[in-house]
Amino acid sequence: MTVVNQQYRKLNQSGATPREISEVVNNLMDGKSNNVGTISLNTSWATTTTIYNERIGYDSIILLAPSSDAAEIDAAPYGCFTNNTDQIAPSVGSTAVVVYDSTEESSGVYFDPVNTSRIYVRNYGVYNVQFSVQLVNKDNAPQHADIWFRLNGTDVARSASRFDIPARKSATVWGHTVGTVNTFIEMTAGQYVEIAGTTSSTLIGLESYPADGAIPSPAIPAAIVTVQYIAPFSLDNVYISSQQKGQATISHFANDTADKTYKYLVVG
Fold it and tell me: Distance between the two ends of the chain, CA-based, in angstroms?
């Protein structure tokens, strides 16, 4: 955290010279006063930063405005994760969860490096969670997979979908279906979401394919999951959450970006 406060001349309460008074008045006419400053948000995924300024009181109004590129382009939390290896279906009737091995894009959202099926958020909010899975059927008969969302290990009510996968065409040409669904989930900081499912056959799985240089086409992940913050309104994420004599607390999205700097103005 970096705090910079302006230090223009102050008048002595017991009296001042005409030159000193003129300097202070002219500064005020030019908009130069000591009730402004700059503050850089704390890093290491901090969610609060404190302004220290002797002019802050319990009833002060404190206005904030971005003053660096990092602050100006600040984005709501988001993440995109993929699984680029095949995942085999469990026994019929049992539940498995989709796992991930790659982070494509992320800010304030991450998957656990140990429990790789768990995607965590660092901020409270409502999130749009969407998956796309490359289902494969190696059986001679059509089969299906039921897939749904979980929050902190508990199934999300009414979130399941059934995907039918056609039978294979031959011993080397299998049946495929892409399953994709999105939903809105309210999450608190530190909660995680998972994609769970069950299949009608152990010959169903999630299939990945490498990039094809002959066509050409990029690699096909077995699963793609995106998590995007949608509410409350993201422009309100930097605000004064509490204040007292001489200091105020700024609440904000979990931050790990350096030089996310704001200018502030204290009134009253």
Answer: 24
